[in-house]
Amino acid sequence: MSEAWLRRRIELERMMGVDALIRGPGVEDELGELEQQVKQCTRCRLHETRTQGVCARGRADAPLMFIGEAPGAEEDRQGVPFVGRAGKLLDQMIIAMGLELDEVYITNIIKSRPPQNREPRSDEIEACWPYLERQIELVQPRIICTLGRPASNTVLRNKSSMGELRGRWFSYGDIPVLPTYHPAYLLRSPAQKKSAWEDLKKVVLALSGVQPPPPAAGLF
Ligand code: URA
Known about the structure:
The protein is α/β, with parallel strands linked by helices. The chain has a single domain (3-208), classed as Uracil-DNA glycosylase-like domain (Uracil-DNA Glycosylase, subunit E, 3-Layer(aba) Sandwich). The protein has 10 helices and 6 strands, in the order αααββααβαβααββαα. Strands 1-3-2-4-6-5 form a 6-stranded mixed β-sheet, sandwiched between helices. The structure holds uracil.
């Protein structure tokens, strides 16, 4: 089947309001409140060095949620996730999947920029977890795509390597999760873009319902 066919199928589901039917009112308001809390959050030490907390971008009823690691310098300045170089690549990946930029929901496991973009520490991840947990509860994405090892390990509660995780289906509750490479890694290692694209094609097929992920796939 062609990419155009897949795109039409996803669009059709959206037009039929499938998501809106099963979602109560007020989700956007709740996400808005969450965003205000995140902006001013002081739950961990990172608030001392960051400019502002960075919550999310995208639609409240997005069928697909991308979860990255942490805001970088540009995200910290603008207050929006994935707006730097890695974000531009993520946008290209989304468009290549036949999706509109605003029909996905994009966030991070931690909402404040770590100094010098160091990897988030476990206590920072734990302090920030309730925000991500609530975002998933509210958005109820049909599929989650985790970007890179810290995001994948956090959502899947494991310590596996990207070699073990990438391109395989896992679950968060009853939501299928597909880990793939972080776009910042792909900028450093462009040879891996091919593998990432294989992963994203699985997400497109799953979203379209053509090849749904196996039930309770890869549950640990
Ligand atoms: N990298 C991330 O993981 N998240 C961002 O928001 C930007 C870069």
